[in-house]
Amino acid sequence: MNNITHLSKMFESNIRLQIIASLYQGDLSYKKLKEICHCTDGNMATHLNKLIQNQFILKHKVIYNDKPLTTYHLTNFGKDEFQKYVAVLQKAIEPVTEEENTNHDQ
After folding, report:
1. What SUPFAM superfamilies does this protein map onto (predicted)?
2. Does the pTM exceed 0.85?
């Protein structure tokens, strides 16, 4: 079985995992991420800041229709780390082949 303990600590939080998975599909606004994650402003800010500090996401602020709009973007590093995480999970749930079973029994 695969050991997932070497993966980034960013995936230990369900909220951060949801943010990363959501941004994997494309850029999203703060409002939309908050809606997806069902959390408070304080909780959301904490998780977003942690992801920014660890270079998983970038924050963009612009003025749109005379109002501030904050959007978030998954970095290439964030995408790579998420893909590694998904690959390890997929490997962990793959059925063990008979040959692998034989090798482990020896």
Report:
1. Winged helix' DNA-binding domain
2. no
